[in-house]
Amino acid sequence: MNAAQTRATIVVSIPNAAKIEWWIAQLAPLLPGWTLRPVDDPGDPDAVSYAVVWRPADGTFTPFPNLKAIVSLGAGIDHVLADRELPSGVPIIRTVGTDLTQRMREYVALHVLRHHREMPAIAANQRRQRWAQQVVPPATRRRVGVMGLGNLGGAAARTLAGLGFETLGWARTQREIEGVITYAGESEFAAFLQRCEILVCLLPLTPATENLLDAALFARLPRGASLINAGRGPHLVEDDLLAALASGQLSHATLDVFRQEPLPEAHPFWRHQQITVTPHVASLIDPESGSRIVAANIREFEAHGEVADLADAARGY
Ligand code: NDP
Ligand code: OXD
């Protein structure tokens, strides 16, 4: 056996053991010559070259001194960076692609339209058998802001602009997107927020974005604005949201991501009349197309030592 063959194991780590087997079954035929194993049964640790992971436990990578790259089974890498024993300098590959982007575009369009057309109020009226007609402005007179203009936020902003919304976008650096008025950095944040009647958060979770959706931010939005958070749970200060909804500063929130997932049964969000809860399904990775992307990225990284969707660990996304 030559040296290359002795470095030919890919381990898979996902909190749900059944899903590990499922991913291994999907990936194995796409990566001939590689041995795929659950992280708890890696075989020779020196032979492990790649780890494909979702929410790995602390210390997951420590046994593997020859790791070439960590593959996040998702666009976000916060779950990898959360590992307090993460080896430094190991590249992290994000899994992104057309299916994920398409799903997020659908989710954002669905919930922005729902807020725009005041569906929560219409549904509440139906529960009371109340016939209450109200004219809403056309999308061209509704301002929707997207925080984060990367793969997902950029695609969502384009979709909203295509639906006719007056679309605004905010990112760390200046981005140009046709049909979207863009803002960059802290200095332009207030100008962006004051125009957003519906605010969509598609930021990655980093020290700079944690707790960003707080009382100070809500106070800068037009009164009665709506919030859609499909970024990460810790972006949101939960008590500040409840207070903003109670005061009327915000009218409704749609939340897909939570500080604790699954959202605990007793959590007040579940039964709140002004909150729509979705169970982190805005853009779930599909193991069939996702495994094709993971395998292609591993092959590409193996051949060239780089891939397009490499995260920048120092930047945090
Ligand atoms: P990208 O890395 O492609 O884009 C991130 C965007 O956020 C960039 O535009 C970046 O700015 C901007 N950004 C980062 N930090 C800041 C900051 N401090 N201030 C302002 N803007 C900032 O990420 P994706 O679009 O692929 O994914 C975004 C996030 O969506 C993921 O990290 C994940 O948390 C979440 N997600 C949620 C899913 C769900 O089902 N709910 C599914 C998939 C992802 P710049 O352009 O200047 O770099
Ligand atoms: C992701 C997610 O990061 O599903 O891809 O949240």
From TrEMBL:
The keyword Iron-sulfur does not apply. One of its GO terms (molecular function) is oxidoreductase activity. Coiled coil: none annotated. Keywords: NAD, Oxidoreductase. SUPFAM superfamilies: NAD(P)-binding Rossmann-fold domains. Pfam families: 2-Hacid_dh_C (PF02826). It comes from the Bacteria. Residues 111-282 form the D-isomer specific 2-hydroxyacid dehydrogenase NAD-binding domain. Gene3D superfamilies: NAD(P)-binding Rossmann-like Domain. PANTHER family: 2-HACID_DH_C DOMAIN-CONTAINING PROTEIN, D-ISOMER SPECIFIC 2-HYDROXYACID DEHYDROGENASE NAD-BINDING DOMAIN-CONTAINING PROTEIN. This is Glyoxylate/hydroxypyruvate reductase A. It comes from Salinicola endophyticus.
